[in-house]
Amino acid sequence: SEEKKELMEDLDLLEITTGLPSQKKNELKQKEKEKSIQKYQNLSQELIVNLKIIQIQLELGKGDATRPVVALCLSNIFAQIENWSTDILVNSSVQLELALFNDHLLAWEPLIEPIIDE
Q: Do residues 53 and 28 both lie within one domain?
């Protein structure tokens, strides 16, 4: 086949008969490297993450008597990552809200409020 012919052309007759290192050994290694690089150049990678909401709430207390302290809400989370092995491309977005619990008012007070586009 064609690959065998190509391999036979690249082999040095002196190396086959005497076992001595060939001048062409480095050339063979270089060709193999180029072939493997070509394979990776055609490779396309993509990771897409799409989450509706993640909520994290910190509560303090002892036993059954706990009270909320901080609440974090991440919503509309989107991330798209492409070709991380070569030329990485990242596109992402997230909405963030953070609130603290006021013990005197017994209510959540926003620390970071969402921006609502309409």
A: no
Same domain, residue pair 52 and 34: no
Please tell me the distance from the alpha carbon of residue 32 to that of residue 53, in angstroms, as a whole number: 48
* 56 and 92 co-located in one domain: yes
Question: What digits encode the pLDDT tens for the residues 70-102?
Answer: 999 999 999 999 988 878 899 999 999 999 999
pTM for the whole structure: 0.56
Yes or no: say if 95 and 117 are a contact pair by the CB < 8 Å rule: no
State how far the Cα of 77 lies from the Cα of 80, in Å rounded to an integer: 10
